[in-house]
Amino acid sequence: MRIGVLALQGDFAEHLAVLRRLGAECRLVRLPDQLDGLDGLILPGGESTTIGKLAATFQLVEPLRRFVLPGGSAGAAAFHLARTVCRRAERRVVALGRREPLEPVAVRFLNRLSDLLFVLARVENRREGRGDVEWSPRAGE
């Protein structure tokens, strides 16, 4: 497996060192063309910030101005559905953590994964030439 470590923020050098100690084939990623040939990508520290910065830098999505509802293209709807399942899993892991000891990274991982799925849904809508499905208040509410 070839693993990339996003080298924009966070402790990417430590992630790279651990992967190498484990015998993984890995490299730092700073530009989109460096993703070619990778089987996975690690986003060390500040994941949601990194994802947002990348999306803005490469003009993948417009800035949020309203609450985004699930929907749009079939692909975006699938990402939104996956995000819903991920958020449900996050709530269940939090509840489990109240009863039994568990690694805090589990909740952080699920939270960051849901952030990524949200951004991917927006990117997919844009790729399909569709905008976000935005919430709009009804008159008189």
Strand share of the residues? 5-15%
The H-level CATH homologous superfamily of the largest domain, spelled out, is Cobalamin adenosyltransferase-like
What is the level-2 CATH architecture name of the largest domain?
Up-down Bundle
Low-confidence stretches: none
Number of helices: 4
Molecular structure report:
This protein has 141 residues and is α/β, with parallel strands linked by helices. The chain folds into 2 domains: 1-45; 65-136, Up-down Bundle (Hypothetical Protein Ta1238, Chain: A), CATH 1.20.1200.10. It contains 4 helices and 5 strands; from the N terminus they run E-H-E-E-H-E-H-H-E. Strand 1 (2-6), helix 1 (12-21) and strand 2 (25-29) form a beta-alpha-beta unit. Helix 2 (47-57) packs parallel to helix 4 (105-127). The longest helix is centred in the middle third of the chain and has 26 residues, at 74-99. The mean pLDDT is 82.
Explain the layout of strands and helices:
Blueprint: E1 2-6, H1 12-21, E2 25-29, E3 40-42, H2 47-57, E4 68-69, H3 74-99, H4 105-127, E5 133-134
Parallel strand pairs: 1-2, 1-3
Antiparallel strand pairs: 4-5
Helix pairs in contact: 2-4, 3-4
Record keyword descriptors for this entry.
2 domains, Hypothetical Protein Ta1238, Chain: A, 5 strands, two-stranded antiparallel sheet, 3-stranded parallel sheet, single chain, globular, alpha/beta, 4 helices, 141 residues
Task: Provide a short characterization of the protein structure.
The protein is of the alpha/beta class and 141 residues long. The protein is built from 4 helices and 5 strands, in the order βαββαβααβ. Helix 2 packs parallel to helix 4 and helix 3 packs antiparallel against helix 4 (105-127).
